[in-house]
Design goal:
By secondary structure, the chain is of the alpha+beta class. The protein has 2 helices and 5 strands; from the N terminus they run βαββαββ. The longest helix has 13 residues, at 50-62. The relative contact order is 0.36.
Amino acid sequence: MHRVRLEVRGRVQGVGFRAYVVRQSRALGLTGWVRNREDGTVEVEAEGSRASLEKLVEDLRAGPPHARVEGVDPRWSEGEARHRAFEVR
């Protein structure tokens, strides 16, 4: 199973970013989670096909209309599936 862990920086809290991540991830057939971090970033872990994960990374670099994404740092890995759905933590 392909997996990516992302840290998204910029104006990404209070602008519907987590809901955007959930919508995009579910549309791409991915599983995992998204959460706000105390430092103002958003953290994402997603699993699925490499092509779908790459599309998610691309989508998150753009973000929803009211967000201002300054950076997306992906860390790629592979392993056994950890998630059964995509959720907000």
